[in-house]
């Protein structure tokens, strides 16, 4: 095993390659000297744009956009883990932190190699870390493979495009902004199909600010995607209760107070990376993300808070309904309605939920009506936020955020819901993903309205966009339709000030929504028309 020359205090020194401790030397282990320059600060958008532009060059090497993003997640994780290990002590919370990645498999071990030796060692790292079964780090690298086969391409990516820059915020408290920005950029590429995993960060933050997690509470997301809700909940706790997160409460937060579930392994991998980089869990601990179909079976664990944006779609992963879920109020192939029922069952008594739902969950008949009746009766369904279009990567999505507490019925068998407060953030609001993006400031008025009654929701202050509906009024509506409005849309007035490109995009959005609905109906009819075994 060759030695490593330590840099002198006066200037960066040559670093000599060494083999991974405890591992057989990888091929092409010639000693290579690499100048390691101090990392430079760069804005998040600059870093993301620089990395994304390199994707176009990689296409000529046979590396697809999806493969490039996947490889970047591995490399950025290693780089940011290295930065995290070298943070000032002031930013290390609770207990002394162990490095996320063991020595010899870390970023510095890549920086000491070049050419074929670099390529071989990168592949060694992916394989070795992926064999650490039962741990968060092992789950991150499970089945990881190198898709960049040209040594020169890999070396430029590592040493020229990633290593020279600091991927932390200016105050050195790593937030992963550039990392998340890259994932978001991947979602904008419609060909990757990644957009389904992303909830706008301002909306996530607003939902967490409404629910207000507290130390000691357990939090989950049954369809966690890349972990946005879980990371935002953790950030809220650290920001507001940092002095309380020592000792038992701090250890509980790290050991499973925040967990998630994800159906797609590749997406769950991103969630695990994101959580580790944001200081949630530890690399050698049990994974905090479970890869499974959340709807397939009743929950084995119950939570104080559920935050979620369940995926849109019909049926289970196998195309079947969840008939085995005897804990559901009504069987249905509507995935969102099933998630509403599942989230109710996930909650502890008096637990709180906030979930993003498409419009059809508010008015669909049959099972939808049964579910809404039960929800209003057994929970305090207290807030509905009507969202505008143009804030999700999937075009034309009309969605809402529903907030409810699992209170059970009140004394005397009275329903849990007294009033449902509706905030109309849809009427007269126009957002796009590029020209006018949703920002947290746009939701300030809603969050203020949400908390306007303090601990007593009935004492909230109504406004032009915010008004309550009594339980009796809700339950008397046809099919318990909760597709409620506050403001009346003046289409002529709003269209007058919209630019032609916005109007054109809205037309496209509406057509895509209609097409998606027709597709779902066609699939349902096709399934119903399929001959049964008795007909054959």
Protein described:
The protein has 536 residues and is of the alpha/beta class. Helices cover 39% and strands 11% of the residues. The protein has 18 helices and eleven strands. It has helices at 44-59, 65-85, 107-111, 115-130, 136-140, 151-162, 177-188, 201-211, 228-241, 248-257, 265-277, 335-346, 360-363, 367-378, 444-450, 471-475, 491-496, 500-529, and strands spanning 14-16, 33-35, 219-221, 258-262, 289-291, 303-308, 347-358, 380-386, 399-405, 419-424, 466-470. The strands form two sheets. The protein has a nine-stranded mixed sheet with strand order 5-4-3-6-7-9-8-10-11, with helices on both faces. Strands 1-2 form a two-stranded antiparallel ribbon.
Sheet/helix structural class: alpha/beta
- The number of E-state strands comes to 11
Q: What is the CA-based Rg, rounded?
A: 25 Å
Arithmetic mean of pLDDT = 78
Give the SSE string.
EEHHHHHHHHEHHEHEEHEHHEEEHEHHH
| Largest sheet, spatial ordering of strands | 5-4-3-6-7-9-8-10-11
Which percent range describes the beta-strand content?
A: 5-15%
Q: What is the distance, rounded to the nearest whole angstrom, between the alpha carbons of the first and last residues?
A: 69 Å
Low-confidence stretches: 1-38, 170-175, 190-197, 491-496
Query: What characterizes the major β-sheet?
Result: 9 strands, mixed
Helix content: 25-40%
So how many helices?
18
Which shape, going by the Cα principal axes? globular
Briefly, what is this?
One of its GO terms (biological process) is methylation. By secondary structure, the protein is of the alpha/beta class.
